[in-house]
Amino acid sequence: MSEAVAAEFNSADFRKAMGNFCTGVTIVTGVHGGAALGFAAQSFVSLSLQPPLVAVCPAKTSSSWPRIRDAGSFCINILAADQLVVCQTMAQSGADKFADIDWRGGVTGAPIIHGGLAYVDCRLVDEHEAGDHTIAVGQVVDFKLVDGTAQPLLFMRGGYGVFGAM
Hints:
Helices cover 17% and strands 42% of the residues. The chain contains 4 helices and 12 strands. The strands form 3 sheets. Strands 3-2-6-9-10-5-4 form a 7-stranded antiparallel sheet, with helices on both faces. The radius of gyration is 16 Å and the shape is globular.
């Protein structure tokens, strides 16, 4: 980006423009020191089939990610449309986020949240600095499509919704 363009850059307008890209909603979970940890994330992507890799982009301000990183593994829980409360709970800081959430430990020990569409359990293999976020790459060690018929929870333009077939 040139200096002239950088001087004119408006982060609020950029965020608004990017908000027009609809994303699914995931919860990234892990266990550190016996405590279940988690945070909501929309920046998630399948990265490679051979080897099976995914990427998630936690904000550098996340208080959960450094502890999940230290554990060396994490699970991506893909939320169903009826799991908005789970998303809202995991988007908060502090408190025991798992107090009212039904879950079980996956292969890595990371929480798999009951009621999701799918989960992807991973071993952390790499991280890359990227502005105000980190790109975390995980090698898939286990995954399951739990419910292939339910609607996904989607996020767009600052709000939550579901997919409407055309």
